[in-house]
Write a structure and sequence with these properties.
mainly alpha; 2 domains; globular; 83% helix; 457 residues
């Protein structure tokens, strides 16, 4: 049976992925996910607002934990999550519902395993990690009070994200987006009650937002599990599909482990470049840190489009519609570039609007403005590279795109060091190196995607 005929027997969402015009479909898939991830950024912001009322030690403590929570969240939503979404999409595109059901069930097994692994690492080692980051005395106590609750309940974060990505693999972007939005609203409502106490509820202090996070995400995971067991779904977690088979976990890990590595490289890049900026002085390091925060807006935008790229590329690859899968990859990357570039260009034109959110210090603002004017317009290239990374996720071949991100790190670090130490070009020379590294990233991922397309055709 040819792919078009076969798709007529599939669910309406799968037919949409196989037949509807590519660009409108990408937009339809992207919008809920962009709102989804911006909601999570809002969740972290509210934590800071509430905990800030407990004092600077409490705020400093959760700041130490924040990068590790975001690493787990991004790993669950993007690194390993997109591997789940891609595997489900490819199975549905090939018309193999039984395998898609089994993959959905094994996403739950994977969430349980990764949640246990996160707890096993962070609970015993958290004190050493936060101490190495500078946590001492009351700051370290606050960090551990917050961290121990979150990582003891890490399975809730992994389960909600991986089960949500099962649904994204079917083309359903609205349900996971609605669930995470409900989780954020629940967290925002719970956190002040748990932090400060109310009626019979005792004041838990800095541990309160941790309990709010794992409780709300746990409820979201339970709801998604219930939806995936309900009759009539595109995929179902059935009793017989729960029988454990390592081959399905291995299929996730082949794309998911490189995806997790990509998340690590993203964070490592910021750490290395912050250290390089510090060579130009404290103000330069602070300014770079404030400017680089804009990446945490660009990444959710590109991720929101990327989830649609994964579903479209994976489903059409499974259906052997290679031309359509290629069109989805390139058009999706161009869309990610347009959205990301718009953000970067806006703050390049009005840089003070961004910097004044964080500081009014004249020297810091001056350096930050230089960063935004030099690097901001190149966020289009960053978005293009991220879009192509997700295309590789859809093809199930992520490692080449991770190599592109690593090339960005190496180029930015090497060129930045040369600019500062050899050419004595100052911090502006470092910013030019960072901007050029985005071009390296886009070019490397374009080359990677072309190779993967040839191999998969």
């Amino acid at each position: 049976m040819d792919p078009a005929s076969a798709s007529a027997t599939l669910a309406p969402r799968t037919r949409m992925l196989l037949q509807a015009p590519v660009t409108p479909t990408l937009l339809r898939l992207a919008v809920p996910n962009i709102l989804n991830l911006l909601a999570f950024v809002g969740l972290i912001t509210f934590d800071g607002l509430f905990v800030g009322r407990l004092g600077l030690d409490a705020l400093a403590g959760i700041s130490l934990v924040f990068p590790w929570v975001m690493l787990m969240q991004h790993g669950a939503a993007s690194g390993m999550g997109q591997a789940v979404s891609s595997a489900v999409a490819r199975s549905l595109g090939a018309g193999d519902r039984d395998k898609a059901d089994a993959l959905a069930a094994h996403a739950l097994w994977l969430a349980l395993g990764l949640g246990a692994l996160s707890a096993a690492v962070m609970l015993p080692l958290g004190g050493w990690i936060y101490g190495a980051m500078g946590g001492r005395g009351p700051v370290l106590e606050a960090a551990l009070a917050y961290s121990n609750v979150i990582f003891a309940g890490a399975v809730s974060i992994w389960a909600m994200n991986l089960l949500g990505n099962v649904m994204r693999g079917t083309g359903d972007m609205k349900t996971p987006a609605a669930v995470i939005l409900a989780c954020v609203v629940g967290h925002v409502a719970l956190s002040p009650v748990l932090i400060f106490g109310w009626g019979p509820v005792p004041a838990l202090g800095v541990a309160g937002p941790g309990w709010g996070l794992v409780t709300s995400f746990g409820a979201g995971a339970v709801y998604l599990l219930w939806r995936l067991q309900a009759p009539g779904g595109v995929v179902r977690i059935r009793r017989e599909s729960m029988a454990f088979r390592w081959a399905y976990i291995a299929e996730f890990l082949r794309a998911g482990v490189p995806g997790m590595l990509n998340v690590v490289v993203n964070n490592l890049t910021v750490v290395v470049l912050t250290a390089l900026a510090g060579r130009a002085g404290r103000d330069a390091a602070i300014a770079y840190g404030m400017g680089a925060r804009l990446e945490y807006i660009v990444i959710p935008l590109a991720f929101g489009i990327g989830t649609g790229i994964v579903a479209l590329v994976g489903t059409n690859l499974g259906a052997k519609q290679h031309e359509r899968s290629r069109a989805a990859a390139w058009k999706g990357a161009a869309m990610a570039a347009a959205f990301s570039g718009a953000v970067g260009l806006a703050f390049a034109l009005f840089p003070h609007a961004w910097m004044h959110l964080f500081t009014r210090d004249e020297e810091t603002v001056r350096i930050g403005v230089a960063y935004l004017r030099i690097v901001g317009p190149c966020y289009a290239l960053y978005g293009f590279g991220i879009g192509l990374y997700f295309a590789c996720q859809g093809y199930g071949r992520v490692l080449p795109a991770v190599g592109g991100n690593f090339a960005r790190l190496v180029f930015a670090a090497a060129a930045g060091w040369v600019a500062l130490s050899v050419l004595e070009a100052g911090v502006q020379g470092l910013f030019v190196a960072i901007a050029a590294a985005f071009a390296v990233y886009a070019a490397a991922n374009a080359f990677a995607v072309r190779r993967v397309m040839v191999q998969k055709s």
